[in-house]
Amino acid sequence: MPLALAFLAAAAAPAPPAISIDTLRSVTKELSSDAYEGRKPTTPAEAKTVAYIVERMKAAGLKPGNHGQWTQAVPMVEIAGTAHAPMVFSGGKTPVSLAFRTDMVSATYQVAPSVAIKDSPVVFVGYGITAPEDHWDDYAGLDVHGKTVVILVNDPDWRSPDRTGPFEGRAMTYYGRWTYKYEEAARHGAAAAIIVHQTEPAAYPWAVVQSSWTGPQLELDEPGDHRDQSRMIGWMQLDAAKRLFASAGQDFATLEAAAGKPGFKAVPLGVTMSAGLTNTIRRQASQNVLGILPGTAAPGEVVLYTAHWDHLGHCDPVNGDGICNGALDNASGVAGLIALAEAQAKAGPARRSLLFMSVTAEEAGLLGSRYYAEHPVYPLAKTVGGVNMDVLNVHGRARDFVITGAGKSQLEDLIKPIVAAESRTISPEEHPERGGYFRSDHFSFAKLGVPMFDGGSGDDLVVGGMAAGRAATEDYVAHRYHKPQDEYDAAWDWSGAVADLDIYYTLGRQLAEGTNFPNWYPTSEFRRIRDASRAGN
Hints:
CATH architecture of the largest domain: 3-Layer(aba) Sandwich
Oligomer: single chain
Radius of gyration: 23 Å
Strand content: 25-35%
CATH topology of the largest domain: Aminopeptidase
CATH superfamily of the largest domain: Zn peptidases
Number of domains: 2
Distance between the termini: 22 Å
Structural class: alpha/beta
CATH class of the largest domain: Alpha Beta
Largest sheet: 15 strands, mixed
């Protein structure tokens, strides 16, 4: 019997208890009120936020999820660059000097008051990917210790019109994300790692890089102060890269094309890079909130539901309003978490434990979920899988359902019949090239092997069809996302959120009542991590 059918045969779930719309409304309204000041981590508003979530978890019928405690401390450090020297490339036909913000941005993961790179040899490493399962290694035979690597963003096959190619074609894989590029460069000992920005493969313009990388940056505060990372990371404008390559006697377009083909070999550019920056450092802590419904027969095996509680706090005012309340992003997701906890508790304990976790610092780079994944209360090898919720549908029921990052895990085999039972269809992700699967908290667990599901209503609304759905999505992105206008609206239609939450409930219940452990598909970049994790269990 195929694995998905075995799951279904062994763990068919009864109809879910009704999801409470009153809970969805009350939690979203409360957490997005001005009294919570936009729920920025480590501010006085955090204590109020955490206390409210704990109160609602208790009322839902959960138990403290961290060995008798409701929270998990997440140590963080703020690194604020105060002076960025130009990035100077020497030894070519002409010197190339790149100015901070306009030509490049520079930063560091290392917790250090200053960073200096002096005459570091520069190597173009193509897409900077080491993927044994895809027979691809841009670092093959290369020693980059002490060197500066220049890297292309996205995957080698990002120009594909469809999803065919060694890295899923048009759909971005984790190997295409900028976070991976820096991680892989550090694993190979690079002193500095600089990504070439191009708007289409990055999926955002240079202005996003400028705004995201030029203020204080939060990182996890851990022993070693991240000295295992490259001393400097950053981005450079495409035109700046072309000038650098020309100075080195190379044509950027020619090497870019070569980097997209199997067998590419890294190219030393014959120039050196010098740069530096100084930092101010502030150590602080935040909290993840954990509530659990203990299992009966296998309490040590855990099914996850996650939603981040944080938002941006005080932000640039619009019409005199300077609080980014984050009603949809992600007070609504926390409301969904509490509503699911109520429903699961009402149904009674399952065979396995159900863990409901509201994590901190998603907006700062998935830090809360990453900390839990790297310091789990329950071993990841015995974490079955789960669902993440980040922005619920408040525009009414949708005929369709979209799986973010489709084609990755066996959770999809389970979700499809659940969606069909709701008389809904699966629609393809509209922009798979944007790498949406890697941009919320589920990814912190996926990266370490745990299959996590992310998906929700598509744009084909029962009332108004695709036109209404797309208009609502575009309005949110253009006028409310990460702005003070993301506020609670009593006129919202929660029926679409309830329909999605019914699906999340059923998936979680099937996993919690089952005995199997889902895995990633053999082609997934996370398969070998899960296999290694589960090998001893």
